[in-house]
Design goal:
With about 170 residues, this protein is of the alpha+beta class. It has helices spanning about 1-40, 75, 80-85, 120-140, and strands spanning about 50, 55-60, 60-65, 70, 140-145, 150-155, 160, 165-170. Helix 1 (about 1-40) packs across helix 4 (about 120-140).
Length: about 170
């Protein structure tokens, strides 16, 4: 009799744990999509610079060694030919099938750079943002303040020129 009850408790416990894990994973997937869309619209770097170390061909043009190439991340992240006509709309669902299928051309999403020189802190930054957002959303809802003025300003990073005025409300 005891083993039967024990088995039922274990089954219920693991069913509940599996359900919680499912909801948590679903929530984190949505948070990841939101973060990716924010990073697409407002990447932390606005320009990538690379230098050719040997002769190479890009787009049918040959470049000798020592040529500096500039990759305008913001421009590429806002190109309607790559992202579609809704390029300036906030649509996290464009990342529902992952980064590689979010745009018409891959790779077109690189807020932290790409390849061997990708930002070493990318995973940490994304994890930190997910944890912070999860902790905030447990206790608060938030919305933009009526005084907020949308004015992205490129310095070394893209940031709001007048700050990001948000209103927090305890839930």
């Amino acid at each position: 009799m005891f083993d039967h009850h024990r088995t039922l408790v274990i089954i219920h416990f693991f069913s509940l744990a599996a359900l919680l894990i499912f909801f948590f994973c679903s929530f984190m997937r949505q948070v990841t999509m939101v973060l990716y869309e924010v990073l697409r619209l407002y990447p932390p770097i606005i320009l990538l610079e690379r230098e050719t170390y040997k002769e190479m061909e890009l787009g049918g043009i040959k470049y000798p060694p020592g040529v500096k190439l500039l990759l305008p991340v913001v421009t590429i992240h806002h190109d309607p030919d790559i992202w579609g006509e809704d390029v300036d709309e906030f649509k996290p669902e464009r990342f529902a099938e992952g980064i590689s299928k979010a745009s018409k051309e891959a790779p077109a999403f690189f807020p932290f750079g790409w390849g061997p020189r990708i930002c070493i802190g990318q995973n940490f930054a994304l994890l930190e943002a997910k944890i912070a957002l999860s902790m905030i959303l447990q206790h608060f809802s938030f919305r933009l303040s009526p005084s907020y003025i949308h004015a992205p300003f490129p310095v070394s990073t893209l940031q709001p020129d007048h700050g990001a005025h948000i209103m927090l409300e305890r839930i």
